[in-house]
Amino acid sequence: MAAAAANPELPVLPDSVLLQVLALLPLRERLRAARVCRRWQRLALDRTVWRHVDLSPHRISSQTLWHLVRQHLRDSLRTLRVRGALHSGSKRRILSPALLAALGKRCPQLHRLCLTETDLRPIPYENVPPSLMALELSHCEIPAAWFCSSAARALPQLQHLVIRNVPAFSDRHLLNVASQSSLKTLSLCGTYRVTDMGIQRAAPHLEELERLVLRHCVIGDSAVGFIGRHMKHLQFLEISDTYSLTNAGLACLASLQRLETLCLDVCDKISPGAVIALCQALPQLRNLKLGGARFEDKVIDKIQASLPHCSFSLTP
After folding, report:
1. Within 10 A of 250 (CB to CB), how many other CB atoms are there?
2. How many helices (H) does the chain have, and how many strands (E)?
3. Is 49 left (phi over 0), alpha (psi -120 to 50) or beta?
4. In this predicted structure, which of 1-10, 33-42, 162-171 has the lowest mean pLDDT?
5. pLDDT in tens, 56-65
6. CB distance 142 to 167 below 8 Å
7. CB atoms within 10 A of CB 47
8. Alpha carbon of residue 314 to chain centroid
9. Residue 37: is its pLDDT beyond 90?
């Protein structure tokens, strides 16, 4: 891009095209582009370029994030991704209640916040921007009282929650967020403190759920039974690396009449016949992905033959 700006023989791209290109650049290159010329500076600081900001490739400091909030992150911001310093050996914290409050004030259209390796223990949940509709936490630390209600401030009305390898996330957290939000998407990966009892208590609050992912979770037939009983709007369901599920639990999913995609890890406790019976009971099913299955070729052929309108695949 710098070479193009320096060569007058190259055709001049319209602003609309350059804005799309600048929006795709990493943060560092985006800021460098602002130094090329006055025109590029104007475009690099345009509101449309700062709708989706990914800071996760960088180990930024709290001071740098404050600078970005004050100078660049404004009411056009929709998505923000940030990586903390939880596993870097440093005790410095990237986020603070004051910074999140400033972010919520300056960026009222912020809808998606993705945090990785971030220590959230000193930050009350009520400091999270109330405009959020989607929250993703990966390898983070959260306090026991997170997702709790507060009469003093408005809380996010989350529709999409993704939790990956957050050891502290428990049954209590799940119930708190489920009872205060109308979740459409819930993805839990490596949340070993979420149990069958937690799913049972949260399930009545998750009746509008359309997408559910349970990966590396300690759940069994009881949890799956409550999924089948309450989550009738599910269109996508993944249950993987869960080895307590049996044929009896699998049969409970037959009530999910809107299910379009099923991703399932099959262990020795689940028979091919139970899989076929379930899939035949789901009229909207179009995609079936089985993981960990050690079926013979003739069993695989039987599954495929019994599901003529369903795409079928196996994963190791």
Report:
1. 22
2. 12, 11
3. alpha
4. 1-10
5. 887 788 888 8
6. no
7. 12
8. 24
9. no
